[in-house]
Amino acid sequence: MRARIYQPAKNPMQSGTGKTKVWMLELVPSGGREIDPLMGWPSNSDMAAQIKMKFASREAAEDYAKSKGLDYVVVAPKKRKPVIRQGGYGENFATNRRTVWTH
């Protein structure tokens, strides 16, 4: 069985980086997806495709995959540059603003 080890990306609907510090081990489905004739939804008969495990570090995920005899691929995370404003959020409410601040 094949597995993919990766660090999840941040949620695009939130500005925080919560839930991105863990490493995930996800089993790759062995077969292709089939279309359900009644509803038309894609389905998979391989139940292992639903397994996602969280690990504190990359090494822990690799050790688990090795202990279970899984072939694994590590996908390196793409780090983003932090967005830090000069004055920060408090600058919006400063008493020494030079311009009028309105919505």
Order of helices and strands: EEEEEHE
Gap from first CA to last CA: 55 Å
Count the E strands: 6
Largest sheet: spatial strand order: 5-2-1-6
Q: Output the radius of gyration.
A: 22 Å
The shape, in one word, is elongated
- Secondary-structure-derived class: mainly beta
Short précis:
By secondary structure, the chain is mainly beta. Helix content is 10%, strand content 21%. The protein has 1 helix and 6 strands, in the order E-E-E-E-E-H-E.
What does this structure look like?
This protein has one helix at residues 58-67, and strands at 2-6, 23-27, 34-35, 42-43, 52-55, 71-74. It has 1 helix and 6 strands, in the order E-E-E-E-E-H-E. The strands form 2 sheets. Strands 5-2-1-6 form a 4-stranded mixed β-sheet, with helices on one face. It has a two-stranded antiparallel sheet with strand order 3-4. 10% of the residues lie in helices and 21% in strands. The chain is mainly beta and 103 residues long. The mean pLDDT is 85.
Topology (elements, then pairings):
Layout lengths: L1 E5 L16 E5 L6 E2 L6 E2 L8 E4 L2 H10 L3 E4 L29
Parallel strand pairs: 1-6
Antiparallel strand pairs: 1-2, 2-5, 3-4
